[in-house]
Write a structure and sequence with these properties.
The chain has one domain. Helices cover 73% and strands 0% of the residues. The chain is built from 4 helices and no strands.
Length: 83
């Protein structure tokens, strides 16, 4: 299920606008334990659509995804999702 979800996200990143794939990535972070793929998706988003330079050396989405995974893990444990 996790692999199918990740492939679905990659397809959305390649073909859909950001306001569709960012909530889907957030749902994956909440549902799956340690959804580290979100960091990879952040790098893909920054590589495809990033402007380069700026904050965090041009990897804004990758850094934000890393922070979301880091802070969502204790929240997920507290909510006790079991997938």
């Amino acid at each position: 299920m996790r692999l199918i979800f990740s492939l679905f996200v990659v397809l959305f990143i390649a073909s859909a606008p950001y306001w569709l794939y960012l909530p889907i990535i957030l749902i994956g972070i909440i549902i799956f334990p340690l959804y580290l793929e979100a960091m990879l998706f952040g790098f893909i988003i920054d590589t495809l659509y990033g402007l380069g330079g700026g904050y965090f050396f041009g990897f804004t989405f990758a850094v934000l995804a890393t922070l979301l995974v880091y802070f969502a893990h204790p929240l997920r444990e507290h909510l006790r999702f079991n997938v």
